[in-house]
Each structure stands twice: as structure tokens, then as C-alpha cells.
Amino acid sequence: MYITKKRFGKKVYYYIVENKIINGRPTMKHVLYLGTVQKILGVFREFLKKKV
Prior knowledge:
A hairpin with a 2-residue loop joins strand 2 (11-22) and strand 3 (25-35). The protein is elongated and about 50 Å long. By secondary structure, the chain is α+β, with helices and mostly antiparallel strands. The chain has 1 helix and 3 strands. A 3-stranded antiparallel β-sheet has the order 1-2-3.
């Protein structure tokens, strides 16, 4: 599994994906949608507030 980004217009979205072989061809399978950088940082900040 790894993190990849996709660009839609001017926005960039991040996903956790893994490679799977489907019909004999390697394809990316989206495992989890992470969102934009702002959303990821917001979740991380909330986690740190709860941790402290």
C-alpha cells in the first residue's frame, strides 16, 4: 500500500491505494480516501489535541 495523489482542477486529493491484478492487468485499488492536505492536517491536529 502507498499514498497517491489525484488532481481535479486546481485541487489535489490523496488516497491510500494498493496494486491488484485484475483480469491479468495491474490496477490501483483505492483502499481509503484521505482528502485534501487541509483535511488531513485538521484531523492530525485534532488527534494531537486529544493526545496531549
